[in-house]
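Me: I hope this is not a bother. Any chance you could explain this protein sequence and its structure tokens? It all follows right here:
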Amino acid sequence: MHNSTAHDDTRLHFLDWLRILAFFLLILYHTGMYYVSWDWHVKSPHAGGAIEPLMLLSSPWRMSLLFLVSGVASGFLLKKRVARQGPAAEAASGALATFVRERSARLLVPLLFGMLVIVPPQPYFEVVEKVRYAGSYGDFMALYLQAYGGFCKDGDCLTLPTWNHLWYLPYVWVYTLVLAALASMAGHGALDRAGRRLGAMLSGWKALALPVALLALVRILLKPHFEETHALVDDWFNHATYLPLFLAGAVLSGQAAFWRELERLRFAALGIALACWAALVAYLWQPETVQAWPAAARTVWAACQWCAIVAACGFARRHLSGDGPALQYLAQAVFPVYIMHQTLIVCFARLLRGAALPPATESLVLVVLTVTASFGIFEIVRRVPLLRPLFGLKGSERQATGAVARHAG
């Protein structure tokens, strides 16, 4: 992400903070998935509907915000590469190739490592719990690497190997390829031109209404026909939602007026988002209403989705515009923590079952253990050059620290 100061509209520190906060919100959300009635890899004996309204506070917008911010980061990086090599056709082509190589290494290496090393404990404990698998972890890994398809319950079979919570990485990678292809076809300066047009369009009330209308249309037309699979190749509803947000972030990355507009609209957006959340909670407890008015329910979801993003960006720009050691440290830690967190939640949840703790105490212990272990692993990884690329970190720690110091200077 591009760095900023509190008074420099061309730099967006607040989006770095938002990215960090959104990824750490995943720890709370995925811990909550252990305790709600919704399907997940493992479930608490105390699972029920008590905290589901709280889960709905972030469900509509959390991943959408991450894709928007990822688009901003990609837009800055792409423009930086093109500016460094120059606008000539051959230089611009080389810049695009460099951009794609860098993003591929940053996303695909951790994905492959995660699928082979980090993720497998999750499906292992899932089949132990759901289909009473009695084999050892080594036996399971032999089946995992053979793409065994026999772990089935009620006609639903587990797909192996799997990327589980790392599905975000291949999606961002594919969207990065789409961005590079569009930039190649449109030519030099296309991102800035598109950004100026889109930024001019998204001013005043239109900054809220137009994205809500687009997201609602996608949800109304596609949601009934395409299940959210996170499998990349058949996930058309999610692609229709996340790809436009990613591309919008890329083209709006340099449009200071747009981000100022979100700050101006932050209170109105927050009010709309909270009102829509209350309506969604009411729908949750009265599902017959959703069945009677599906288009209205999906429009309310879309309004909550976008207005929460606007509120988050607006308040973050207002209050989280500063740089410093904390931001630099957390910006480096957030990717390894994201890679590790869900496996740690699943493993610690299984270990804590024997303690028979009250659910409130157990969930707090689970969050503390996950955060502590995640940062402990990060502290090891950042110091071992061979491990750094596997967790999405660049170069050696000395090189990264030097780059940060030079940038801060």
